[in-house]
Specification:
mainly alpha; 5 helices; 68% helix; 0% strand
């Protein structure tokens, strides 16, 4: 997928997250779970493509981050803030399925995933990634 397509997808996810927050995070936990996970993975993919660390045909899958060990095996090269990025993606992924497929969760769980997402989003912004 082209970088422009990823950036369009990231923007869409950011809009859905913002709309979900405005509507009420308790009522929109599924949207938040899906979109924080996919947007964070796409941010990483765009960053790695821009740094020429992965081939253009490689796609980063959110499922890779169910396990830190698995993520490190798949991303077996160095890049800026690698440990922190993998840690945050793992935390997001571990909450994702609970929010997406389970019953309504305590509001703190949704707030927690939003916190992890905002942290990774800020990290990528500080690393020069822009989607505006």
């Amino acid at each position: 997928m082209k970088a422009e397509d990823h950036l369009r997808n990231i923007k869409e996810s950011l809009e859905v997250i913002e709309e979900s927050i405005q509507k009420g995070i308790q009522e929109r936990q599924r949207n938040i779970g899906f979109n924080t996970s996919v947007a964070a993975a796409e941010m990483l993919e765009v960053y790695l493509h821009k740094k020429d660390l992965i081939n253009p045909g490689i796609s980063i899958k959110h499922e890779w981050f169910n396990s830190i060990k698995n993520a490190k095996e798949r991303l077996n090269f160095d890049f800026e803030n690698k440990e922190k990025i993998i840690e945050l993606l793992n935390k997001i992924e571990l909450k994702r399925n609970i929010l997406c497929y389970g019953k309504i969760q305590p509001i703190e769980d949704t707030e927690e995933i939003l916190g992890y997402f905002n942290e990774i989003k800020s990290l990528f912004e500080d690393m020069g990634l822009k989607w505006n």
